[in-house]
Amino acid sequence: MTDPIGTLQQFINEAEHITFFGGAGVSTESGLPDYRSDDGAYTELERQKLDPRRVMSKRYLINYPEKFFNQPNKNKKWIKPEPNAAHLYLAALENKPKDVRIITQNVDRLHQTAGSKLVVELHGNNRHFHCMVCGREYGPKEIQKDEQNIPRCPIDNGIIRADVVLFGENIKPEVLERAKELIASSDLLIIAGTSLTVHPAKNLIHYFTGKRVIVINKTPLTIDLPIDLVIQESVGKTFKKLSI
Fold first, then answer.
1. What SS3 class is residue 166?
2. Residue 173 to residues 81, 176, 177, 205, Cα–Cα distance (Å)
3. Beta 144-145 vs 151-152: how paired, if at all?
4. Taking the model in full, what pTM does it have?
5. pLDDT at residue 75 in the model
6. 151 three-class SS
7. CA 36, 166, 164 angle in degrees (round to 5)?
8. Per-residue pLDDT for the chain (244 aa), expressed as one digit of tens each?
9. Residue 191 to residues 108, 154, 213, 221, Cα–Cα distance (Å)
10. Domain boundaries, the chain
């Protein structure tokens, strides 16, 4: 295809029900490193000769909370990420109006910040927290930490953790079912910024039976679906070239 952006625009214009299935590559242009990139948390733990799957697990959190909450990268200066062109375009597309569904593997809630109304967070998010003892919910600004930097519930001293899926935990069944429903009822599937290597998220795309599949990713993907368009470019740069 001589004009991939024009073709992408055409496919979006013609679609009625669009599912956007995104991974870490959607948010890298917002300043958030890919988990497994050179400056990502997974890679940093490996540099420290630590097993990321063990250190980022629920068991480790319970048994070694002081180590869990003081891991490499956790205390670096934090810069508030902002939605990039991809997040903003998808949110604006809803006002066209278009039936846009977001299924994300990210935990940053940038889609909601941009204004998207229907977002399924496969791995939870890092903006909602709860006490592991009593279940009380907390916002980021409500959390109090003890002398070991461990977030503690002021009621029962339970550990407060983010509502994210850790290693050793499963995606909630109702979340998976909702994602399956949305993909199955779409006529356009856009797979963007993901290597599709994480189970069970990678299997969700097989529920798509619609008209067209688009892949936007810097590196090639091998999937068991006919692909109508491949754009090997960053997600934000690609969407920045589109019009509403």
1. coil
2. 29, 5, 6, 16
3. antiparallel
4. 0.91
5. 44
6. strand
7. 95
8. 579 999 999 999 999 999 999 999 999 999 887 655 455 565 666 677 778 889 999 999 999 999 999 976 554 555 689 999 999 999 999 989 899 999 999 999 999 999 999 999 999 999 999 999 999 999 999 999 999 999 999 999 999 999 999 999 999 999 999 999 999 999 999 999 998 988 888 999 999 999 999 999 998 888 989 999 999 999 999 999 999 8
9. 18, 42, 8, 10
10. 4-31+83-123+165-240, 33-80
What tokens does 77 get?
Answer: 């200066």
What pLDDT is recorded for position 43?
62
Interatomic CA distance for residues 100 and 206, integer angstroms: 19
Which residues have a Cβ under 8 Å from the Cβ of 198 and sit 6 or more positions away? Answer: 105
Torsion of CA 155, 156, 162, 164, to 10 degrees: -130
190: helix, coil or strand?
Answer: strand
DSSP result, 74-109: TTSPP------HHHHHHHHHTTS--EEEEEES-SS-
Q: Residue 57 has which token pair?
A: 């697990």
Placement of tokens 């055409």 in the chain: 10
Query: In this structure, are residues 217 and 25 in contact, taking their beta carbons and an 8 Å threshold?
Result: yes
Active-site residues, by number, are 123
By residue count, the chain amounts to 244
Residue 89's alpha-carbon distances to 84, 152, 179, 214, 219, in angstroms, are 9, 38, 21, 16, 22
CATH class of the 4-31+83-123+165-240 domain in this structure: alpha beta
Report which residue type is found at 171.
Answer: I
As a whole number of angstroms, the distance between CA 77 and CA 210 comes to 44
